Amino acid sequence: KSEELVKIALLYQGVAGTIMVAGTLYGVINLPAMLVLMFIFLSGHGIIGPNATALSLAPFAKYAGSAAALVGSWRMGTGALITGLVSFLHNHTALPMVGMMATCAWASLGILLLGNAIVRRRAPKDNAEEAPVVL
Description:
The protein has 135 residues and is an all-alpha fold. Helices cover 78% and strands 0% of the residues. The protein is built from four helices and no strands. Helix 1 packs antiparallel against helix 2 and helix 1 (2-26) packs antiparallel against helix 4. The chain is elongated.
């Protein structure tokens, strides 16, 4: 299911991001290892992007166009804010970048799990397993 794919991808992105943060913080990660970890982290976007968008739009069949516009503007706006924050925190190391990558992965996983819990709690008891997931 799309939900499981997104959970797994966010989990391994969070782990890869945390390893990058720890390696950068303690100075034990070299360039080839950083590139491998970046590849692992970024490969998750191919899984997360389409599946998260589909999960987000699922409950809005009648207003799919408006919902898609909101998802797109949300992605663009948060990307701009995070880019600005990374630039503001720049300290001539990779730490601000990898720190924000890890933070976003873990925050996304938390939002997904919290959103699922809220949707399942509000869903009628007979439709609890078929409730749409809203990110």
